[in-house]
Design goal:
Helix content is about 75%, strand content about 0%. The chain has 17 helices and 2 strands. It has a two-stranded antiparallel ribbon. Strand 1 and strand 2 form a beta hairpin. Helix 1 packs antiparallel against helix 8, helix 3 crosses helix 9 and helix 4 runs antiparallel to helix 5. The N terminus and C terminus are likely disordered.
Length: about 425
């Protein structure tokens, strides 16, 4: 084995783990993108309102975020392979049973609670956990690629699912998503490893004398809440969580859930609207990977300022784009797509810098929980606003203004009263406040 833990001088096993993780997150992204193509079919078949369907999506997104820090603690305690396999099995069960539902409460239980719990265990925390456990060098690039799996999931799934809904009905689309999740399970069982030291390696780029990272002990719930306690006493945590709340409200909750029905209401066919979101996925794959590369080289705070400001401007432009020719909406897809989840790599970098690499899973888990709380708020809020006002315009404009506020929040991260920079000695979860 080479100095960087190479196998046969060629391939570091961490890249295999990262590839499997990419596929897991890809499948999870396919699951999370499904409601966007189901909203109108469910309204037509069951007579449910937009607010009723949006409530199930909101529950799903809320659990997706809230379970992140507990999932990180469970990964520390039991290993990432066991936790991921359990989550994939739960998602497959919830998605499969959705085909049999007949009432709205079943939608809330299956898609909201069951699927939300499963995908919440495979949230953004999984990518942060793998990137920080296996990589010292190229960590930002790896995090960018894993984050971009969300966009790639849209690229692969949305047009395909929309076509299935139009030609064969929504249950066929749900069955296809369930099959994809089941296909990923054996890959995790065979190739996933919990830690490089488990197979006699060390993180890529780590010094030769770096000690192994000990597995977490004790109660996972206690560890997760200990991280939250540390965060609540940190101004930087509030700034990161507040800006990430706005990030979730302006992406997954709003655009990811409601752009397709909003486009259809402006005369754009469902498959075309799904293709539009898929196109965003292509550009986000580029933008997020580039963001990971930049976060290894530039001040992450300034990157976030640019990302939130540009996203805000694009959302303020969206109502105009929907009301004009398709070319304006395509321009929005390119501009917004480059910035969809580009905020994640620099946010993870700042979390590791402030709270320490050892704590990044749990601490980023709570920050990601704020992200999904924002997504859940926007998913239900935009649906309710559409039901009451008959339009999405207020929701899109409000999200754009919030993004401009987020740009002002992130510049203060890590700054002291004298205009200082990020601390050089990260705090540890469990240390005295």
């Amino acid at each position: 084995m080479g100095g960087r833990g190479l196998i046969g001088g060629r391939l570091y096993y961490g890249w295999i783990v990262a590839a499997v993780t990419f596929l897991v997150l890809l499948a999870a992204a396919g699951v999370r993108s499904t409601p966007g193509v189901l909203i109108i079919p469910l309204e037509k078949e069951f007579g449910w309102t937009r607010a009723m369907v949006s409530l199930a999506v909101s529950i799903n997104l809320l659990l997706y975020g809230l379970l992140g820090p507990f999932a990180a603690a469970l990964m520390d305690r039991f290993g990432v392979r066991r936790v991921t396999l359990s989550a994939l099995t739960l998602v497959a069960m919830g998605v499969g049973l959705t085909m049999l539902m007949r009432t709205s409460w079943q939608l809330y239980v299956l898609w909201g609670l069951v699927v939300g719990t499963g995908t919440g265990t495979m949230s953004l925390v999984l990518g942060a956990y793998i990137a920080n456990r296996w990589f010292v060098e190229r960590r930002g690039v790896v995090m960018g690629l894993l984050t971009a799996s969300t966009a790639t999931g849209q690229l692969f799934f949305l047009p395909f699912l929309a076509s299935l809904v139009v030609v064969h009905g929504w249950r066929t689309a749900v069955l296809a998503v369930c099959a994809v999740v089941l296909l990923v399970i054996p890959l995790v069982a065979i190739f996933m490893r919990n830690d490089p030291h488990e197979i006699g390696l060390r993180p890529l780029g780590a010094p030769a004398d770096a000690p192994p990272q000990a597995p977490g002990g004790g109660n996972a719930v206690t560890a997760a809440f200990a991280g939250l306690g540390r965060g609540l006493h940190s101004r930087d945590f509030w700034l990161l969580a507040g800006s990430f709340y706005i990030c979730g409200a302006s992406t997954n909750g709003l655009i990811g859930t409601h752009l397709i029905p909003a486009s259809m209401e402006h005369g754009i066919p469902e498959v075309t609207a799904a293709g539009l979101l898929a196109a965003m996925g292509v550009f986000d794959l580029i933008g997020t990977t580039l963001s990971g590369w930049l976060s290894d080289r530039w001040d992450s705070r300034y990157l976030l300022v640019w990302y939130y400001a540009l996203r805000g401007l694009s959302l303020l432009f969206l109502p105009y784009a929907l009301g004009t020719q398709f070319v304006a909406l395509a321009a929005f897809a390119v501009f917004y797509g480059l910035d969809w989840v580009a905020t994640v790599p620099p946010t993870v970098r700042l979390t590791a810098d402030i709270f320490g690499k050892r704590n990044v899973g749990i601490m980023f888990g709570w920050i990601a929980a704020a992200h999904q709380l924002g997504a859940a708020t926007a998913a239900f809020g935009a649906g309710a606003t559409r039901t009451w006002l008959g339009s999405y315009q207020v929701s899109f404009m409000s999200a754009g203004l919030l993004c401009l506020i987020a740009a002002g929040l992130v510049i203060r991260i890590g700054a002291t009263s004298k205009g200082g920079v990020l601390p050089t000695r990260p705090v540890e979860v469990g240390a005295p406040v």
